[in-house]
Every structure is written in C-alpha cells, then in structure tokens.
Design a protein that fits this description.
4 helices, single chain, alpha+beta, 5-stranded antiparallel sheet, Thiol Ester Dehydrase, Chain A
Length: about 140
C-alpha cells in the first residue's frame, strides 16, 4: 500500500476515519503516555470538575487525525511536519469520533501539503479543529 504523491493530491480531497472511544482506549492511552491525569482515569475526581465526569485525553482523539494522514490521505510514506490543534469540546467514553482531513494547499516545489484537520462526534459537534503540514511520499 502506497500513499499519494504531491502530484496525486488535489485541493478539496478529503478522507475520514471513525472510532468509538472505549474505556480500554482511555486506560491504554494513559498507560502508554504516562498521562494519568485524574480527569481521565478517576471518576470521583472527574465528577468534581467542570466536565462533571471523566473525559478522554484530547490527544487520543487527535491521534485519529494521524491515522487518516498515515493510512489514507496522503497515506503510507507521508511524513508529518507539524500540527496545530484547538480542543473545542470534551470526548467521553462511548463517543464516536470522526477525524477528517482535507487538502487545503499544495506546495509542489517543496513537496508539502497543508491539510485541514477536524474531529467531530456522533452528533456532528466539532471537537477539534486544526491544520497539519505534511510531506507526501515521493515517487
């Protein structure tokens, strides 16, 4: 499986990946990253926060953007250069997060693509917005 080269990309192309966030996802992410913030893993504590319950790590949802970029658009062989993110709403266990990547700008002379990156929930509510800079695979 090979990703797209810069010449195979076009402004407006997009791809998405959806995943329902499970209890196991949150605990595994906490263990892998070492982010044991009680807002993510301690219901009693999280109930006292502004979210009134546990929320998933923002970077867990943002990781789904990486899945789209690395596996679909541009796909395998792509190098992530940068990512800007704004976290707009919390994700809870049981939410289905859809990450969508859309080509916004192409810089063929530098082999760079600017991608709009968005995560939404099962109701279409925007959870994360941002943009990525990537280097698609070379021919």
């Amino acid at each position: 499986m090979e990703g797209k080269t810069i010449s195979e990309l076009a402004v407006g192309q997009s791809a998405s990946f959806a995943k329902t966030i499970s209890e196991a996802d949150v605990y595994l992410f906490a263990g892998i990253t070492g982010d044991l913030n009680p807002a993510h893993i301690n219901e009693a504590y999280a109930a006292t926060t502004r979210f009134q319950g546990r929320i998933a790590h923002g970077m867990l949802s943002a990781g789904l953007i990486s899945a789209v970029i690395g596996m679909q658009l541009p796909g395998p062989g792509t190098i992530y250069v940068g990512q800007e993110l704004k976290f707009l709403a919390p994700v809870r266990v049981g939410d289905t997060v859809t990450a969508t990547v859309t080509v916004r700008e192409l810089e063929p002379e530098r082999n760079r693509a600017v991608l709009e990156t968005v995560c939404t929930d099962q109701e279409g509510k925007k959870l994360i917005s941002g943009q990525a800079l990537v280097m698609p695979r070379t021919a």
